[in-house]
Amino acid sequence: MPITDTPPGGAVDVRGLRKTYGGRDVVDGLDLQATAGAVTAVLGPNGAGKTTTVECCEGLRSPDGGTVRVLGLDPVADAAALRPRVGVMLQDGGLPTGVRAMEMLRHVARMYATPRDVDELAGRLGLPAFARTTVRRLSGGQRQRLALAAAVVGRPEVVFLDEPSAGMDPQSRHAVWDLVHELRADGVAVVLTTHLMSEAEDLADVVHVVDQGRVIASGTVPDLLSDGASGIAPRLRFDARPGLPVAALATSLREAVPDGGWSAAEAVPGEYVVTGPVGPGALATLTAWLAERDVLATRVTVGRRTLEDVFLDLTGRHLR
């Protein structure tokens, strides 16, 4: 049954959140909201502050400043009231390692007044295949599926999913995605953290990009992929030897498509990206340009800008 009593500020409302470790601001005045019936993805490089933010929302850490409200309640002070209404899936599972998988799930279900049908939920996530296996002997993907089942078996109004498909094969990943779509349709507020940009792009209604303890960009996936007034910008990407005069390629493409407003830029050594109205003429111009210079491209792809492109543009390409 869809949930209708979400507070006006949203299911999750974070204002001016601050958290300090060792004199360093890990979260520095962060604002973030998530609403019922939507999937909100929180993305960021390692050390950006996203995990600490979500842990404050889950009541696992206390903020040093600002306010955090989940369903209108303080996750720390009102933990007892929130616990039956919130589901949490941690990346490391947080599961007792000595119990068998289905025994653990049935035990968790008995803690709730109106849990989901355990057998139906287990069947959807393929748990019967390892029902009698102890948690310590499960693979990483199997643990993730069990942790997800434990997070949603109590019919939560808000669910926090940390890297929900990490270590999963494609079949398991799609089963998880189908369940996330169902949760959203039922009015659940789903807060998702992931390093898989394709997962966020496929699942999220709203994306918050976090870096250096602050939200640096927010919006729907189409909003973030949009290239200003021109909408979602297609890209032509190719790999060839470093040092090509890509400015000359941009000139050639502008001549081929006078109204295109073509631009070209070197993304990394040997990888080039051209944006503009990609079509057969542009591809023909590219291949002719490469042939004139006796350059063999090892890869040529045509497609729209991706969320990974946006993420790298916002947070940089250097390792953290």
Which key phrases capture this entry?
13 strands; four-stranded antiparallel beta sheet; alpha/beta
Report on the architecture of this protein.
- With 320 residues, the chain is an alpha/beta fold.
- Helix 9 (246-256) crosses helix 10.
- Strands 5-6-7-3-8-9 form a six-stranded mixed beta sheet, sandwiched between helices.
- The chain has helices at 50-58, 79-82, 101-109, 118-124, 140-152, 170-185, 197-203, 221-225, 246-256, 280-292, 307-315; strands at 12-21, 24-34, 38-43, 65-70, 86-89, 158-162, 189-193, 206-211, 214-219, 234-239, 263-268, 271-275, 299-304.
- It is elongated.
- The mean pLDDT is 87.
- 32% of the residues lie in helices and 26% in strands.
- The protein contains eleven helices and 13 strands.
- Strand 1 and strand 2 (24-34) form a beta hairpin.
